[in-house]
Design goal:
There is one protein chain. The protein is mainly α. It has a domain at 1-146: Serine Threonine Protein Phosphatase 5, Tetratricopeptide repeat (Alpha Horseshoe), CATH 1.25.40. The protein is 75% helix and 0% strand. It has helices at residues 5-15, 21-37, 40-49, 56-67, 69-73, 76-91, 96-109, 115-122, 125-141, 150-153, 163-173, 175-178, 186-190, 194-205, 210-226, 228-233, 235-246, 251-268, 276-287, 293-309, 313-325, 328-345, 350-367, 372-385, 388-392, 398-411. α3 (40-49) runs antiparallel to α4 and α4 runs parallel beside α7 (96-109).
Length: 412
């Protein structure tokens, strides 16, 4: 798809301005899917080549979050040289929506120490003063307080009777995004108040507008990178909110939450041990059997990020429990993950293997013998336990002992 991206995006941007609201919505959804699934650099060039239009703003903001501030600021002319002028143009646009997302991107990038130098290198002298004034304003006062509802801003017809409610909700829900997130400003001081932070995050994550909920997810990503102590001090409440987004009915929100999880997990590392019993079921129960390949792959990446970034002993029990009762490819995937964990920690946690993994193995051998995942688990356990595995099996029914011996004979 990357090869045809530029022409496709030009057509989608044209359709995003169509008079038919259904066509506009479908075009917007296609652009959002592109941002989440295609190569970021290709997406960036395709969006910029299509022209800086009102409908480009939020997709560009999502892409900036995905690429990351550090990469953009250090990306040289190939990234910053094209992106910074476009963002600055949006930040001064006549449209309130475009201006909002332009300033949101400036705020996101301003946390990087080299940001001012990047502005100097990529803007004309006559533009610098105005842009630096805007940056200073959003860092000290937040993004302007005009309510932004992306649906109504793009001409989508709101439901009768809900206009005032939705406008108030969006203004209230967007307050977290309007505040600075870099480490030295007043927002960091404000979020020391746990209740205040969670209240505002809840407004975003509980909004009726799915795009505002996605903004809430992006805010957690930004906070985890720029001020992880805020997330860690509120970790249970934050991941309750993320788990709720993983289990809601909107697949766009599900996918976005899944895709940014590895980024959050890589920052929080061992702190994630506190929430695996909430997070893992939200991922595997809802998405590891998904028929949508992008959602399934994103779920696998999230699980792999947990395995890579925290002590696997924290994951073993929940993985074994889920592998015992799930069905389909999710069951096979989790059995393989358990086998990998056995290889990672079996030598230092032999008792844990016996207490947590062997009950799973006996259960699996009692119901099936043809799964390659079960063979992998038997092999991993035998490599760690040797003949002790067959000794432990002596307490099991004859059928299970015979099945285990047959599998081990075929493996060795």
């Amino acid at each position: 798809m990357d090869c045809e991206l530029e022409e496709t995006v030009k057509l989608l941007l044209k359709k995003a301005g169509d008079s038919n609201s259904f066509i506009r919505q479908d075009a917007d959804a296609a652009l959002g899917s592109m941002v989440h699934h295609c190569t970021p650099s290709r997406c960036l060039h395709a969006l910029l080549a299509g022209g800086i239009k009102n409908c480009t703003a939020q997709h560009l903001a999502d892409l900036v979050t995905k690429i990351g501030a550090a990469r953009i600021v250090s990306g040289g002319k190939d990234i910053a040289g094209h992106l910074i002028p476009a963002i600055c143009k949006l930040a001064q646009d006549a449209s309130p929506e475009a201006r909002f997302f332009g300033r949101q991107m400036l705020l996101f990038l301003s946390a990087e120490p080299k940001f001012n130098k990047v502005l100097d290198n990529n803007l004309a002298t006559r533009e610098l003063a105005a842009i630096k004034k805007i940056v200073n304003t959003v860092m000290t006062k937040g993004i302007n307080n005009e309510p932004i509802d992306p649906r109504s801003a793009r001409g989508r017809r709101p439901q009768m009777g809900n206009e005032t409610q939705r406008g108030n909700e969006t203004q209230r829900g967007s307050s977290l995004n309007r505040e600075p997130v870099n480490k030295t400003n007043r927002w960091t001081q404000t979020v020391a108040d746990k209740n205040h932070y969670i209240e505002q995050l809840s407004d975003l994550m509980g909004s009726k507008d799915f795009k505002v909920r996605i903004q809430g997810i992006n805010q957690i990503v930004a906070d985890s990178q720029n001020n992880p102590k805020v997330i860690i001090s509120n970790i249970h409440l934050v991941f309750d909110a993320i788990s709720a987004r993983l289990t809601e009915s909107n697949s766009k929100v599900n996918l976005h939450a899944l895709m940014v999880l590895p980024e959050i997990i890589c920052v929080l590392e061992e702190n994630m041990a506190q929430v695996v019993n909430t997070l893992v079921p939200a991922i595997v129960d809802n998405h590891l059997n998904s028929k949508t390949n992008t959602i399934y792959c994103a779920a696998v990446r999230a699980i792999d990020a947990l395995i890579s970034n925290l002590d696997n002993t924290h994951l073993l029990q929940i993985f074994c429990n889920k592998a015992m009762f799930l069905n389909g490819k999710a069951k096979a995937d989790l059995i393989d993950k358990v086998a990998a964990i056995v290889t990672n920690i079996g030598y230092r946690k032999p008792q844990m293997m016996k207490q947590r993994v062997l009950p799973l193995l006996w259960h699996l051998l009692g119901i099936s013998t043809h799964s390659s995942s079960i063979h992998n688990l038997c092999n991993a356990l035998y490599n760690e336990m040797g003949s002790e595995l067959t000794e432990c099996a002596m307490s099991q029914p004859l059928k299970i002992r015979q099945t285990l011996n047959k599998i081990l004979s075929s493996l060795h």
